[in-house]
């Protein structure tokens, strides 16, 4: 009985907060404002991070930086699958408002993944790869990243966009300050300062999100989970969403492996140093915010039957996506070589054609993000995973077809572009069917009322 009362009060707080927010602005206006704010926050984060990397590269040994990034990449990959929980948490919460069970299922999943990372990945780093990193630093990074993932997903579920946007640029800024403190005041080595600053900045940004979230929404108690049909559906969605995240990561690593297998080290360097960072930055700026800010509002609109709001979001985002991708493509067609040689040594000028071909399909990649968000907001996570798998299969198939006609490294990026184009086509069909279903349901409802 007490559990039900507690859950009722929790939902009342969330619903009241949502009603207050909805009185001030529509879902479309909230999604648009948050998305644009996220672009500026991400630009600030990228600028801080890039400036920090460039500064470190000038005086820190390349071997030390390689060690640091390798360890971070391995640990990040082991925890990144849990970011797939975010969309399932958003959709399930918008449908059920059962914050307590959803949060506790995620808590137990996160604890399990952190323990697995601690027990498997940490010994792998220490003993198999023989990377000389202090045990306390590895444990601290695992725990810090775990806390950050937990609170990031939680504020996403509650649609606390203003907290999420501040956390984006606060983390790199705090890491830079902590690095300077560890290196210059505590006289730690550069690599130790990097590990400690990453660990403490992750904990700091997690603490910031916790404090800010608690000002608006109370913490749900740790308790046993009632696995009713709705919560079993949430677990299924979370597993499918995590698999989709894994498939999206696989698309990137397949391109790297194909480049390693069929092309020279210089061509691999072009891809890793120039093309892949550009892909990452464009994704951070214009693709990830779709799932963070637009998907939750679509889910909310679907629950309330506000299909006109979704149509407004679609028109606005498609206009934005076409504009950004057109400007990006024209910029790469006319200035890709100048841009590459401005930022990188002239030896990387051969990456310009690859970058230009990436610009050809970025528009499909951006628009597909909205389509997938729309599909996921309906709870169709299996279809979303199937779309991603189709993209991976298309990438591999098209690469070997293109290899028959050309030995140029551009074949890799064209194959990736074909994968995203296939995803866009399949998503367009599914999206169209869902829209037609809503129109038909609306027509039938109007007829029954008459």
Write a compact overview of the structure shown.
By secondary structure, the protein is an all-alpha fold. Helices cover 87% and strands 0% of the residues.
How would you describe this protein?
The structure is a single chain. This protein has 450 residues and is mainly alpha-helical. The chain folds into two domains: 1-218, no CATH class; 229-444, no CATH class. It has 15 helices and no strands. It has helices at residues 2-24, 27-57, 62-80, 85-96, 99-128, 135-157, 161-185, 190-216, 229-262, 265-286, 288-304, 307-343, 352-377, 381-405, 410-449. Helix 3 (62-80) runs antiparallel to helix 5 (99-128), helix 4 (85-96) runs antiparallel to helix 5 (99-128) and helix 9 runs parallel beside helix 14. The model is unreliable at 1-22 (pLDDT under 50).
Topology:
Elements: H1 2-24, H2 27-57, H3 62-80, H4 85-96, H5 99-128, H6 135-157, H7 161-185, H8 190-216, H9 229-262, H10 265-286, H11 288-304, H12 307-343, H13 352-377, H14 381-405, H15 410-449
Keywords: Cell membrane, Membrane, Transmembrane, Transmembrane helix
Transmembrane segments: 35-60, 66-85, 105-125, 137-156, 168-186, 192-211, 245-265, 277-295, 316-335, 355-373, 385-403, 409-430
Subcellular location: Cell membrane
